[in-house]
Design goal:
about 200 residues, alpha+beta, 4-stranded antiparallel sheet, DUF7691 domain-containing protein, DUF7691
Length: about 200
């Protein structure tokens, strides 16, 4: 089974602030502009919704209102995908061609490549963890992780230090491509003060 990594350039603090914001105007815009996408997701998760999971819009409304969340942990995935939709709407989608689809421990392999280049401030494997903001309930899927602006700046500094030392470890070509995708994300974050990266594995 393969997985996909979706990454977004955005202001992590501003995005987290949407959770519990009770911004009904935002919800109205989403419902009016992205109704087809919401309906598509409902069709995809039809069996879970028939078992009591919230619809895509219901989950989105719950996230924006900060609750109340379903007590059934099997329904928590919908809130994770609702937060991902907020990131899609407020952020810029970043190239993920080296990561989608991917299998097995590919994210850890890329992390090893980053580490060999001296970059330890960020990790792509962390996008597979449950880093959803409070009060969203824990869910295995989608995974979520954040590279803060500070982490992005530190990672770039680590990369520049490696370049100054002239250290070029032997890496497989596909790992090199993925690592330089990550560096591209970091440079884009650097160009936008206060911006970082939020990623989702699904």
């Amino acid at each position: 089974m393969s997985s996909a990594l979706s990454v977004y350039l955005l202001d992590p603090a501003a995005t987290r602030a949407l959770v519990g914001s009770r911004d009904d105007q935002l919800l109205e815009v989403i419902r009016d502009s992205f109704g087809d996408q919401l309906a598509h997701d409902d069709d995809w998760f039809r069996h879970e919704i028939e078992k009591g999971a919230p619809t895509a819009y219901e989950a989105l409304r719950t996230v924006v209102h900060g609750g109340p969340f379903s007590e059934d942990e099997q329904h928590a995935f919908q809130y994770g995908y609702a937060y991902k939709r907020l990131c899609e709407l407020t952020g810029s989608f970043l190239d993920n061609s080296c990561f989608t689809p991917h299998r097995g421990d590919w994210l850890s392999v890329v992390d090893k490549g980053l580490t060999e280049l001296g970059i330890t401030a960020v990790s792509v494997a962390e996008f597979g963890y449950c880093g959803l903001p409070n009060p969203l309930p824990w869910t295995y899927m989608p995974g979520c992780g954040v590279w803060t602006p500070e982490q992005c700046a530190q990672a770039l500094e680590q990369f520049e230090e490696t370049k100054r030392k002239g250290h070029a470890p032997p890496l497989e070509p596909e790992v090199v491509d993925a690592v330089f995708d990550c560096i591209g994300w970091l440079r884009l974050a650097e160009s936008r003060p206060g911006f970082g990266v939020i990623g989702f594995v699904s």
